[in-house]
Amino acid sequence: MPETEASRVAGYAPPRHVAIIMDGNGRWAAARGLPRGEGHRRGVEALRRTVRAAGDLGIKYLTIFSFSAENWSRPASEIGELMGLLRRFIRNDLAELHRSNVRVRIIGERQGLEPDIARLLIEAEDLTKGNDGLILIVAFNYGARQEITRAARRISERVLAGALAVDDITMETVVDCLDAPDVPDPDLIIRTSGEQRLSNFLLWQAAYSELVFVPSYWPDFDRAALEAAIDEYRQRERRFGGLIAKTGS
Ligand code: IPE
Ligand code: IPE
Ligand code: MG
Description:
CATH class: Alpha Beta
Number of domains: 1
Bound molecules: 3-methylbut-3-enyl trihydrogen diphosphate, magnesium ion
CATH superfamily: Decaprenyl diphosphate synthase-like
Number of helices: 8
CATH architecture: 3-Layer(aba) Sandwich
Strand content: 15-25%
């Protein structure tokens, strides 16, 4: 039987796409009397654990919110630490990700990034583009409103070039102009740290995602926490606006 959206969601397969808002690094550190940077460093360890666990659990797409378009409003010293961690993560972990058959993709605005960071992002994508294991989508310098605005610009350019009629603009046209058009919408979005908001993450793609809010801070996140969030997701009834409840997978 061909897989339909309903059969996929009703089955016992893991969620196909899990997205995570990795929040609470600063508060994790503050609770221990440590500088915020230490929380970010421990957050990278939680990320490593989570990528491994996601692969083991059979998740196909894992999107992580690593730096938002609004995070530039933080103090320069913290931004410097976060950029340093990104550089180190790509330099130290890329080979291992590649060996594990992980394909890295990046969403977010590339314009205006420091040139060495822009190069590292391209290197991560290029090196791993032939891998067919877990697809790790890193949302970096990402904001959903900015992404949708970029899509609006791309659509306008197609219309102005005479390649697209206004009446032919559909939801598919919009999706086609988002940063990762071929990636399915997240089934499950997890946010750590107890905050219950999306903070400009995947606003278009989250239309029918199940949201799970976890009280613990990101540096404490691990395989058990991921499994617990997936268990909660499985209890949910996904109806997609219809009347037939589709039991979470
Ligand atoms: C998440 O932790 C990491 C980033 C946003 C880059 P925070 O730095 O937001 O930690 P809190 O929310 O201040 O505790
Ligand atoms: C969202 O967390 C961004 C990332 C996790 C990268 P924030 O900590 O920036 O979100 P707000 O400011 O609490 O909404
Ligand atoms: Mg935060």
